[in-house]
Each structure stands twice: as structure tokens, then as C-alpha cells.
Specification:
Blueprint: H1 4-33, H2 36-64, H3 68-79, H4 83-108
Helix pairs in contact: 1-2, 1-4, 2-3, 3-4
């Protein structure tokens, strides 16, 4: 988690997992079996992770000058159940390309 993109990727994975647990386990336990505690605690954790995710998107936007389109895609990805995982794959490609660019620059110098 040394770079803003790696932080966004890590937080995004945790946020995505918390969202799936909330939707797949917490809400059914609350609605079907009348056990609201799981949804309460997982929902709270998901809320904290969502805020951290948005802050990480803001940091990446400022550091890497993301366009409005990229920011909107990242925010929309956080609202879809498997969106953070799809975004993670794209961010991994971007991060690898950036690292490759740094390696090429070092070889030239």
C-alpha cells in the first residue's frame, strides 16, 4: 500500500467484500430470520470502508489527475455488487503500466 492506487485497490477489495457480505448474508438474516445484528455490524463496517474508498478515490484523483469519467466510473463501481473487483483489474493494469514506465525511465538514465 505504498502508492495511492495500491491503497485504492486494497480498500476497494475490502469494500467490495463487505458489500457482498452485507447483501448476501446480513440482509437475508435480517429480513428472513429476524437477526438484525449481522446487518447492523457489517453495515457499519461497510459504511466505514465506503468512506475510506471515496477518500482513496479522491487521493488518486489528485495525485494522478484522473478525469471526471474515471472518477465517476470508480464511484459507480462502488455501488455495484462486483464493481470494485472489476475496477481492481483495470487499476492493476494501470499500476503495472506505471511501474513499467518507471523501469524504462531508469534504464534510459
Amino acid at each position: 500500500m505504498k502508492t495511492p492506487i495500491s491503497r485504492l485497490r486494497t480498500i476497494g477489495i475490502y469494500e467490495g467484500i463487505s458489500y457482498l457480505v452485507l447483501l448476501g448474508i446480513g440482509v437475508p438474516l435480517k429480513r428472513i430470520f429476524g437477526i438484525p445484528e449481522v446487518a447492523l455490524y457489517v453495515g457499519w463496517a461497510h459504511g466505514v470502508l465506503f468512506i475510506l474508498y471515496i477518500l482513496a478515490v479522491l487521493q488518486v484523483t489528485l495525485v494522478h489527475s484522473w478525469s471526471f469519467k474515471k472518477v465517476a466510473a470508480a464511484v459507480i463501481a462502488s455501488l455495484l455488487p462486483f464493481g470494485p473487483f472489476v475496477l481492481d483489474k483495470k487499476l492493476l493494469k494501470d499500476e503495472e503500466a506505471a511501474l513499467e514506465g518507471k523501469k524504462d525511465a531508469k534504464q534510459v538514465a
